[in-house]
Amino acid sequence: MSERSLRAPRLPRVPAVPLAIGIGILIGGLLVLASGGDPIAAYREILIGALAPSNWPNTLNWAVPLVGMTLVAALPLRGGMVNLGGDGQLVIGGLAAAMAALYLPLPGPLLIAASILCAMVASGLYASLAAWGETRFGIPMLISTLLLSYPAIGIASYLVGFPLRDMATGLAQTRMIPDAARLPVISGPLNIGLILMAIVAVAVVFYDRRTVGGYELRMRGLNAKFAGYGSVRLAAQQVRVMFASGAIAGLVGAILVLGSLYRYQDGALLTPGYTWSGLMAALLAGGAPLGAICAGLFFAGLQTGGFAMQRETAIPRVLTMILQSVIILFLAIRHGVGRKSS
Amino acid sequence: MSLMSFITPSLVNSAVQSITPILLAALAGTLCGRVGVFNMAMEGQLLVGAFAAVVGSYATGSALGGVLFAIVFTVLFSLILAYGATVFKGDSVVICIGMNLLAAGLTAYLLRQMFGVSGTFSNPGIVGLTRIRIDAINTIPWIGWIFSRQTAITWLAWILTAAVTIMMFRTPLGLRLRGVGEDASAAGTMGIDVTRYRVATVLFAGGLTGLGGAQLSLGTVSIFSEDMSAGRGWIAVVAVMLGRNHPLWAALACVLFGVADALSVRLQSQGLPNQLTDVVPYVVTLLALALSHRKRLKRRAAETITAHA
Description:
The complex is a heterodimer. Chain A is mostly helical. Chain A has helices at residues 2-7, 16-34, 39-51, 56-78, 86-103, 108-137, 141-161, 193-210, 212-222, 224-229, 234-261, 274-284, 289-313, 319-335, and strands at residues 185-187, 190-191. Chain A has one domain (2-9, 16-335). A two-stranded antiparallel sheet of chain A has the order 1-2. The radius of gyration of chain A is 20 Å and the shape is globular. Helices cover 74% and strands 3% of the residues of chain B.
């Protein structure tokens, strides 16, 4: 990216993102128009749905997992690596948290802490499996992270469908977790998951800017060979970064299960599509944590607005997914946004 | 239970059917890989093809119309990668991720807006592909199971695999294509318009994947469901990797997947829960990937040792 802008400064860097958003809105609007809807009304409802003060808690509540999954993608991306396995890691985290909450004999706050820890470790280990596969066997992580998601999702689905199923309901889900394991509520839909995620976000930004590890990761992103030559142990770094990335996905799963679902429900963690939106937000910022967090918040607003739009105008809310992908495609094509090294 | 009771004619037959979309996508992937464009947008391309095929078949009332729609719209969709990764020099990984999501969003949106349904669209107006029944061999074990009662697209897929292999390794055009991928600047010096070759290849590959999408939605079930490509495009990406951009090896990897898929269907009918059996093809794929790369690492290590000796 930086190399390209040195070579061919076509457009100034700053307006790239607003321009991309404008293009996305334009194409989305044309699509709405073509399918017989009113684009102005649609966008008005998105804006109101996302930004009206009474809707802030909803937007924030949606932003917690989305920003979380943004960080999951952004951290490896900073080092030029791609983690496409967020879905699998999210599911493992959610299931681990639910199982710990259901079966560990611990009192109140300790139970919450233990559940979250279980989720983070389980997902972290699963994610580092892909990194280990690449460093040990040379299996490209780009594809192995994604492929590893399928067994994780399938086995989780089997577990809640059969051995762990709550027989009292007709659905594939676990029993409700005890009250002691539920995350304390701040107000309305918001729980302390918001605070946990904010702490993680600050930690990632701090790691990126102020620590040796963060510096080495950025160096790897700019030029992995150079980083290796400068005695960064690339293999160990890769496993470490993927563990951290997976652990954040585990945390997101735990927050969703302990904070709003109160049980592990088959498919409930994946249907909202946090993983892919998060990945796109991270790509939009080229993996820079602060920018990625902003992009994640933007996408969260767009999606909560999408619900309002669907409610008020009957235009399907998948429109927001189209907007997100158009924005990314435009940036990738026009401005080479994405991974620094390729 | 003996092995022969495990393998049934319909199992073999449906395995061959289920390989077709993946085979076409993998063929597309090898072509793109050969000219140096990394294509992992097949998942989205298959989805666009499957959707366009259903729209075309429903609108024109003929399966051929559906197939043509699938090819045309998938080629149009592939313009993003064709120009994005070449003329505009974008990162193909990012472009492909964007394309896969755009395909999922766009098909889901259009499904709701055009047909007023979410999830699955099925309608008697969707004309499926006819299966070609060859009476002479229909009941012969294996031969009949494999070759009879297949769609024209399945036949075409294997013919195209052979044709692409011959084209790639036995014709001047193939030589130029490989040259473009191997060393673009050398190919350019030889007077080959690298960008034009790349764009044309990616678009042709888009047409192949569109054909695969048509088989997916019109080949067996004649419906469209959201996300009906269900990872097949990713399996094709793996097949391309396993086959190291060689169409025949990639096809072999697709067959391996087809066998694993048939196995999972069979295990399911033995009473295993489908959540577990669905995992089988992906686990097999991962294992194959691990084994092939392990061998490669060993060879590389051996080469290094001999080089130092």
